[in-house]
Specification:
Strand order of the largest sheet: 4-3-2-1-5
Structural class: alpha+beta
Number of helices: 3
């Protein structure tokens, strides 16, 4: 049986509250769970100590048994110092998409053409004045 440490949503509409639970991976998100080991209240400020509450002993027990935390719970455990989480790096995230890059390239090309035309136009009257 595969076991996960994950969040189970509670609270009313637009007022989320989560329980950190140990559950079978086949169980529904808000359904059956094995044990409740903490809570997470995203409505509280980030520096509040009541935002994330965990029973450290039970978390360590379930991790030793082989339970796998979800990404969000892994972040909580890393903040508590119970588990090490590798920092993720996606350097392409900030790059614009393919079509946006094409539009940008077209815009640059149009600006270069306009600049070249302006320079050619500026040189042409200077040559005419010199010929007279």
């Amino acid at each position: 049986m595969a076991i996960k440490i994950r969040l189970s949503r509670g609270g009313s509409k637009k007022r989320p509250y989560y329980h950190v639970v140990v559950a079978d991976v086949r169980a529904p998100r808000d359904g059956r769970f094995i044990e409740r080991i903490g809570s997470y209240n995203p409505m509280l400020p980030k520096d509040s100590e009541d935002r994330v509450k965990l029973d450290k002993e039970r978390v360590e027990h379930w991790l030793s048994v082989g339970a796998k935390p979800t990404d969000r719970v892994h972040r909580f455990l890393d903040a508590e110092g119970l588990l090490k989480r590798e920092a993720r790096n996606n350097p392409k995230k900030a790059e614009p998409g393919k079509k946006a890059q094409e539009r940008l390239e077209e815009k640059r090309q149009a600006e270069e053409d306009a600049k070249a035309a302006a320079e050619a136009e500026a040189e042409a009257p200077a040559e005419e004045n010199a010929a007279e």
